Amino acid sequence: MKIKIAKKILLLYLITISNLAFAQIRIGETLDYEVDYSNPKEFEIGGITVSGNENYDMNSIITISALAVGDKIKIPGDEITEAIKKLWNQNLFDDLSITITKIQGKIVFLNIHVQERPRLSRFSINGVRKTEADEIREDIKLSRGDVVTEHLKQNIKTLVLNRFKDKGYYNVSVDIKEEIDTAMGNGKFLYINVDKGKKQKINKIYFVGNEEIASSSLISSFKNTKEQFRFYPFEKIDTFLVHVVKNFKEYRQKDLLDVTRDYFSDRVKLRIFKTSKFIQSDFETDKANLISYYNTKGYRNARIISDTFYKVSDRSINIGVSVEEGNKFYFGDINWVGNNLYSNEFLSNILGIKKGDVYDQSRLESNLMFNPTGTDIYSLYLDDGYLFFSATPVEVNIENDSIDIEIRINEGKQARINKISIIGNTRTNDHVILRELRTVPGQLFSRADIIRSQRELAQLRYFNQETIGINPKPNPIDGTVDIEYTVEETSSDQLELSGGWGAGMVVGTIGVSFNNFSTKKFFNSKSWRPIPSGDGQKISIRAQSNGSWYQAYSASFTEPWLGGKKPNAFSVSLYHSLQSNGLKRSDENRQSIDINGISVSLTQRLKWPDDFFILSQGVSFQNYVLDNYSSVFSFSDGYSNNLSYIVSLGRNSIDAPIYPRSGSEIGLSLQLTPPYSYLKNIDDYSALSDQDKYRWLEYHKWKFNASWYANIVENFVASIRFRFGYLGTYNSNIGVSPFERFYLGGDGLSGFALDGRELIGMRGYGNNTLTPRNQAGYVGASIFTKYTAELRYPVSLNPSATIFLLSFVESGNTWLNHKEFNPFKMYKSAGLGVRVFLPMFGMLGLDWGYGFDDVPGSPGANKGQFHFSINQSID
Question: What is the homologous superfamily of the domain 418-486 according to CATH?
Answer without folding.
Answer: membrane protein fhac (3.10.20.310)
